Structures are given as C-alpha cells and as structure tokens.
Amino acid sequence: VHPNVSQGCQGGCATCSDYNGCLSCKPRLFFVLERIGMKQIGVCLSSCPSGYYGTRYPDINKCAKCKADCDTCFTRNFCTKCKSGFYLYSGKCLEKCPDGLEANNHTMECTSIVHCEASEWSPWSPCTKKGKTCGFKRGNEVRVREIVQHPSARGNPCPATSESRKCIVQRKRCQKEGKGKKNREEKRKKSNRDESKETRQESKGRAARRQNREQRENNNKTQPKKRKAPNKEENLAPVDTAH
C-alpha cells in the first residue's frame, strides 16, 4: 500500500491512497478490487457487481468473486444465474441437466418435463352429410376436445383434438328451402290480413255505434215533448148513490 494515505476521499471511500484508490469504505458500502490492466484499484459500491457476492463483517463489507461458471451468486457455492452455455439447477451451473429434467433455453435453467394434457371428449355431434342432416342414410358425426396443458420440449406430444366416425340415420326428405320460405311468407301475409280485417271491423263497429248514439241525441233535441194525458178517472163526476 502506498504510504500516502488520505482521509479526505471521494466516492464513498473512508480512507484512500493515490496509488491503490479506496482502502476502506464508509458504513454499508462494499469494498471491491477492480483490475485495470496490471493494476488493482479499490472502489466502494452500494452493491456488488455481476460475478461477485457481498459479505458483511463488523469492520468491513467486501465483495468476493463467484465461481467461474456463475454470472451472479448468493454465496460462492450457490449461483443465482449462470454464464452462457450453462444451466442453473439447485444453485449450481451445469452443462447438461440431470435425468428427468430438461434444459430451458429461455431461462437457462433445468426444469421439470411437462407432458401434454387434454380435456374430456365432447358429445358426438348430429349425423350430417355435406352440411345437411336430412336426405341421406349414411353420414358422419364428430367429437372434439381441448388442450389444457401444452407440453415442454421433451414432454409427450398432444393427441388429436377431433374424431370422426360413420353414422346411419333414418332417411327423411329435406324440406325445400324455397317452399318453406314461401309458406312462411304466405302465413305471415295471411296473419297480417286477418289482423287488418279485424281492426277494420272493430273500427266500423265503433263508428256505427257512435253514429247511432249521435242520431238518438239529435232526435231527442228536435222532437217536442209529449204532454201527459189527463187521467180519465179524475174527470168523472161523483155518482150520487143516496137516491
């Protein structure tokens, strides 16, 4: 260490020298040696760089190097990320995954093999032929299922998701689309005519009743009131029965 040790250092150093850089760090910072050519310079960092792991001691916090195949590590013997060409498994970096596991090139880890899983079959569809359900005797019916779990690279492949088989139906004639459409149109028109006829009849009936009521009211207004005929019994003279 160069004898010229300074106390007024910058960059988180507690003590430093012009030749070796930081010699000690301020509290909570990590001390690490960085190589610059043939020379190593001490620096103080808030966290350890890639390829190093931090250890804390009462007098100093240091960054120590990971194993050669580790990119980042928790301790020297426990990697958290491997360098290119290695796969992480239980804190170790391996060139080949153990039996029962497969290499995941996306995460660069050894993972469990996942096999394909499919749902239960759906019920068989109606028997059809060329998209029709009538006008034939022999046709086909199908059933389907869905993939609920896709396989990994070394997992069992997925089975077929649809099946078809021959079927026999009772022969029946197909109703012609044009005729059926014409019948429906005629029924609709007839229904509209019947509704219109009923509506017209109801309107005529209301108009006739209203006209009769108005005629009676007019007759009552124009005709003079009849005088009440006198009672014949009141005009008869009393009969003298004394004689």
What does this entry show, briefly?
The chain has helices at 177-222, 232-235, and strands at residues 5-6, 13-17, 21-25, 30-36, 39-45, 52-56, 61-65, 70-75, 78-82, 87-89, 92-94, 101-104, 109-112, 117-118, 138-144, 147-149, 162-168. With 243 residues, it is α+β, with helices and mostly antiparallel strands.
Bulk shape:
elongated
CATH topology of the domain at 1-65, anyone?
Answer: Hormone Receptor, Insulin-like Growth Factor Receptor 1, Chain A domain 2
Largest sheet data = 3 strands, antiparallel
User: What strand order characterises the main sheet?
Assistant: 1-2-3
Number of strands: 17
Number of helices: 2
Unreliable stretches (pLDDT < 50, length at least 5) are 232-237
Determine Rg (CA atoms, Å): 53 Å
Distance linking N and C termini:
182 Å
Do you know the CATH architecture of the domain at 1-65? Ribbon
Structural class, from helix and strand content?
alpha+beta
Question: What percent of residues are in strands?
Answer: 25-35%
Helical content class: 10-25%
Output the CATH class name of the domain at 1-65: Mainly Beta
Mean pLDDT rating: 81
Main location: secreted
Protein name: R-spondin-3
Biased composition (Basic and acidic residues): 175-219
GO cellular component, one term: extracellular region
